[in-house]
Amino acid sequence: MAKATEASLDFLCVGLNHETSPLEIRDALVMNEEEVGRAIHVLRDRAGAEEAMILSTCNRTEVYARGAAVADLSLFVNDLLREIKGMDLGARGHRLYAYREPDSVRHLFRVACGLNSQVLGEPQIVGQVKDALTLAARSGGSGPVTERLLDAALRCAKRARTETGIGRGPISSVYAAVNLAAKVLGHLGTKRALVIGSGEMAGLAMCHLVDAGVGQFTIAARNRGRAESMAAHAAARVVSLEAIPVVLPGADIVVCATAAPGFIVMEAAVRAAMKIRKNRPLLLLDLAVPRDVDPLAARLPNVFLHDLDALAAIVAQSLEQRRAEVPKVETIIDDEVRRFMRWYGSLELKPTVTAFRGHFERIAQEELERHRGRFRPEDHPALESLTRAIVQKLLHRPTTRLNRAGEDGGQGLRRIDAVRELFGIGREEEPNEDRDPR
Amino acid sequence: MLPVLYALSVAAYARAYAHEGGAGGRLGPFALRAAVLVHILYLSVRGVLEGHLPLASVYDFLSATGLSMAVVYLYVEAREGIRTTGVFVLPFVFLIQIVSSAYGTQTTPDPVPLRPFWFELHTLTAVLGYSAFAVSAIYGVLFLILYRDIKANRFSFFFRRMPPLEALGQMNIRAAGGGLVLLTLAIALGVGWLQRSGTGSLFDPKIWLTLFVWCIFAFSVLAYHRFGWRGPRAIYMSLIGFTTLLLSRVAVDLFFHSFHSFR
User: Fold this and answer.
1) Taking the model in full, what pTM does it have?
2) A83 and A42 Cβ atoms separated by less than 8 Å
């Protein structure tokens, strides 16, 4: 029998994020697709990593690797970043964090759940984690462990979102404004919006309103060219700032985000608009500093005026609520880490081979005992010997192949996983499906 | 038993309300449906045993009002798909049922024996109509609280748990509209019965006050649909209607002699 050679199951994470590094360093280390591919090749070729994945966003650059045969992966990653991004973190006295499993697994799960994000519970990170795996797969860095790990991380993130309030409530002023619009006006599908301004904030607000279902837009702006390019995204009508009193009565939501030094929307215009609107509710969202809407307009019945201070209060409240949900998310992460580590531990070769053989020998023994009564006592030794020989012969080839799994890297691990799955190894608590009901 | 069942419903709705992020839970609607079913069974058995609808005393009337408020609430909840307002409506149902169970007798002789079926229908539609107005008033008050909170930039727990302001306004007006239809039926059936039986007068103060209440609600519904009234003005109108309804019932029973009052 060939000697079992274990595939390395060391799973490490080395990196830096917004908690450990300033923006200038994080910015300088963001990798594009090509750089990620190069880094994965270096990790595989020079560090001997069997699987590698890189998560590189504006808030973090993290290297995940299995089976790297280097004494100090942090040092290796430091050299790797110097080679690919031209930045020597060591020379700057900057340290990378490093985790070994199960902490590396826990770290990835925390990242996927948004606990490690600058804005607690933000959802974009889930997509970034998915993209990291896609890139790893394209560069030949993914394998059975990273694939399974990513599945587990995404499941963990999904559970955190559905079972806790970590993703609840708006976390940006613009999103808070859209939430507020839905709270006042209900279903936004039939509502009309007037966006005053053509800057970044106005564009962002318009995008969020489009996402929330608002279908009719009018843009009032000084810069007609920019307003028209904004209007192209939502088939909006563009008017000048002077036309505001004319278009105001037709709007249910007004978003103001200009850089004007004074008020753009006066109380008298709102009052006149409300008369034409027969007092139907009007939501004025003033995202400008200094403010665009005359605060006196807030006194009119059915006019809801909210400025950035009010929206910031909603955002602060949401963040506070999210912070209160962190312990619940940590419990889910603990649960998922335990689950993943159980599977990960099962990939060890020797226990699998032993369990695999034991599985067949146990079945043979059980059948032997069941039918022992049909044979004469003097035949029992021969019967046992015969059964053992059949089992040995049946298992010889699969055992030999399984023992070689350790030398086959990722393929080997897949083979081990498949054997455990096929024969229910490590699932003793489940009902034994192998037994013949007869 | 009925107060206990309603208390359980209130507790379930309160728990769902307190659980932020949940849509309102399933236990509350389940408990409330069970309570309503038992209540209907109880009143039906009593109706069969006594030979008339159990609406002869003020306590019977209260019990039927509690039941129909619960039914109206369940209808609005099913229609709007909003469960977070139950905690504000059902305590009234519970209180009404407590009073009815504590002071009401099990059987009450019918003061008007041999009443025709459509007179019973008159009473039933009136009870349902009043209950719809009560539910409408509760939604009206919720609307006003939320309206003031939003205007004042107070984004409290109440703000987060309430449905959109517009939905509350619609729930208020729909319940009022339903109540108006039922009250119209009740008035028509009552007047018809009066004409045939000759047992009372059309110049009864209760009839005139009820017609006055009907006018207020009719204007409220008309103003919403026809004149586009929205917001506090429309809500105040329906609240004035409900307050007038309550005061008129008390006034009729205390200060006027009516053939039609509960004693």
Assistant:
1) 0.71
2) yes
CA dihedral in degrees (A369, A370, A374, A378; nearest 10)? Answer: 0
The two tokens of residue B136 are 């409408």
**Distance between A289 CA and the closest CA of chain B, angstroms:** 18
The identity of residue B128, as a single letter, is: L
B166 to chain A, any CB pair closer than 8 A? The answer is yes
Say whether residue B42 is in contact with chain A using an 8 A CB cutoff.
no
Q: Decide if B22 touches A, using CB distance below 8 A.
A: no
Domains and CATH numbers, chain A: 11-168+322-343 (3.30.460.30), 173-309 (3.40.50.720), 346-422 (no CATH)
Give me the residue label for tokens 């055992």.
A399
- pLDDT per residue rounded down to tens, chain B (263 residues): 788 889 999 999 998 888 865 555 788 888 999 999 999 998 888 888 877 777 777 778 888 889 989 998 998 888 888 888 999 999 999 998 888 887 766 555 555 554 667 777 888 898 899 999 999 999 999 999 999 999 999 988 899 889 999 999 989 998 999 999 999 999 888 888 777 776 666 677 778 888 888 999 999 999 888 888 888 988 999 899 999 988 887 777 766 665 555 54
Q: What is the ipTM of this complex?
A: 0.82
**Residue B232: its chain A contacts at CB < 8 A?**
301-302
* Chain A nearest C-alpha distance from B221 (Å): 16
Domain spans in chain B, listed from the N-terminal domain onward: 1-114, 117-263
Contact B87, B158 (CB under 8 A): no
Contacts of B150 in chain A (CB under 8 A): 180, 183-184, 304
Q: Touching check for B233 and chain A: CB below 8 Å?
A: yes
Min Cα–Cα distance to chain B from A202, Å: 22
Minimal Cα distance from A308: which residue of B? Answer: B153
User: Distance between terminal CA atoms of chain A?
Assistant: 35
Distance CA A342, CA A332 (A): 15
pLDDT mean across residues, chain B: 84
Partner-chain residue, chosen from A279, A301, A313, that has the shortest CB–CB distance to B153: A313
